[in-house]
Amino acid sequence: MKIAFDVDVLAKQMSISDMVHQVADWGYKYIEQSPHPRINPFYKHPLFSRECEAEYRKALRETGVEISSFICVYRWSGPTEEHRRMAVDNWKKIVEIAVNMGVQVINTELSGDPNQPELCNGMWFRSMDELLPLFEKENIRVEIQSHPYDFCELNDETCDMVKSYHSDNLKYVYSSPHGFFYDKGKGDVRHMLEYAGDDLSHVLFADTMNQTIDCRYILNPPGVNATIHQHIGLGEGEVDFAGIFETLRKMDFAHKTFRVGGESIACVSLFGYPEKMAKQAPETRERIEKELLGR
Fold it and tell me: Shortest CA distance to 12 belongs to which of 28, 29, 36?
């Protein structure tokens, strides 16, 4: 199992070189490269200039850190055909970048409009039918997660979409800070992880509050068409991490390998409090090592 750190919080405050060195200083061997304005920006075409690539490669050599996975977020579920076509072009470019950097795993979202679920569902399958041959050709493992305010927020339905392809190149991401959206507030982590089963290749670790409980979050005006969640330190919210770790041990998640992309990935995905990161990032890595690797 690769234990990675999602560098979203670092990318906003430091250079690529400093970002890589910081991850190494916190004891991580792997980076999950979330959307970065110079590499793989949200929704837009990937970039990654020669200068940017050279800076990244140099920092990786200096630290011994590796990229476990890229995260990309493109509107491959539409809701318009123009959105979808541009997203497919973006996908082709991020796959090219991943292959060039020796990265076999790309983690992504459904990225649709919750107000048009039927249309976006069809658009997603259209995009997947078009892109899966490319993923197979380039030996890329693409991992899908549903996300708050997506056309599908549910764990079981998203798993069923992934499983419908019977493909070694398509797997599932369970994101613990999204879990209350995944089953409409029940938070039954054991069921959700077990339902993903052998298609679970990636788990994101962060805490959050249960948004379905009255006044956990207050939105104005009441009833606004939006969702809210957090990526805070483990134990600061209401996620059942004892259940997550127990179930992952039962599933032997830490020792799973996949035909495409190799090892499973456990990624620390803390965003909310950069001022706490120097303490929380190493602590979370150490807890994952203790709970899943027995260190």
Answer: 36
Tokens for 292, please give them.
Answer: 């899943």
Q: What is the pTM of this model?
A: 0.97
Tens of pLDDT along 225-264? Answer: 888 899 999 999 999 999 999 999 999 999 999 999 999 9
Give the integer Cα–Cα distance in Å for 268 and 281: 7
How far apart CA 255 and CA 205 sit, in angstroms, is 18
Stated length of the chain: 295
Model confidence pLDDT, tens digit, residues 13-32: 899 999 999 999 999 999 99
Specify whether the CB–CB gap between 269 and 6 falls below 8 A. yes
Which has the closest alpha carbon to 6: 261, 220, 267? 267
- Please tell me the distance from the alpha carbon of residue 135 to that of residue 133, in angstroms, as a whole number: 5
Helix (H), strand (E) at residue 169? none
**C-alpha to C-alpha distance for 54 and 155, rounded to whole angstroms:** 39
Residue 143, strand partner residues: 107, 171
**Parallel, antiparallel or unpaired: strands 200-205 and 170-175:** parallel
The encoded tokens of residue 250 equal 């039962």
Domain boundaries, the chain: 2-293
* Cβ within 8 Å of residue 238, ≥6 positions away: 180, 187, 207, 208, 209, 210
N-term to C-term CA, the chain: 13
Radius of gyration of the chain (CA): 18
Measured CA to CA, the distance from residue 264 to residue 250 in angstroms comes to: 15
CATH class given for the domain over 2-293: alpha beta
